[in-house]
Amino acid sequence: KPMKLIPPKLIPSRRSSGPEGFSVDPPASPGARIARVRIKVRKGVKRAMVGEEYALPLRECQRSRSGFRVVPQLESRRGSRFARRAGSVLAIAILAAGCDPPDHPGRLPGVLPEPVRTAIEPTDMRVLSPGAGVAFFAFKSDTGPWAVQLVRVDLNRCELGLEVVRAPGEEGMAGGRGRVSQLQGLSRRPVLAAVNGDFFTPEGQPVGTEVIGGVIHRIRDRPAFAWRPGEAPWMGIPSRDGDSVLVVGWRVSRDAPDGVTQVVGGFPRLLSLGRRIGDLQVSALPSFAAARHPRTAVGFDAGLNHLWIIGVDGRQDGYSDGMTLPELTTLLEELGATEAVNLDGGGSTVMTLRGVVVNRPSDAEGERSVVNALLVVRDPLFCGAGE
Question: How far apart are CA 128 and CA 95, in angstroms?
Answer without folding.
Answer: 12
